[in-house]
Specification:
Largest sheet: none
Oligomer: single chain
Shape: extended
Helix content: 55-70%
Organism: Streptomyces venezuelae (strain ATCC 10712 / CBS 650.69 / DSM 40230 / JCM 4526 / NBRC 13096 / PD 04745)
Order of helices and strands: HHH
Radius of gyration: 15 Å
Structural class: mainly alpha
Protein name: Kanamycin biosynthetic protein
Pfam families: MT0933_antitox
Number of helices: 3
Strand content: under 5%
Distance between the termini: 46 Å
Length: about 70
């Protein structure tokens, strides 16, 4: 079992908090590097959120009922 699998198991049900933590960490790195690597940090944040199961975005609305 990989480290990422263990993290996913621990974070199950708390994807929104994990996403917030990823955002906070990325903002910290941006602050320390004075925004020099902001595009790379943003890419890393999105990929990490995908791996952890939360995109940090609202889920798509359900499809309309069939008539």
């Amino acid at each position: 079992m990989s480290m990422l699998d263990k993290l996913k198991g621990m974070l199950k049900g708390h994807e929104d908090k994990a996403s917030q933590g990823v955002d906070k960490a990325g903002d910290f790195v941006d602050g320390k590097t004075q925004g020099k690597y902001s595009s790379q940090v943003d890419t890393a944040q999105e990929k990490l959120k995908e791996q952890l199961g939360g995109t940090g975005q609202n889920p798509p609305p359900p499809p309309p009922p069939q008539a």
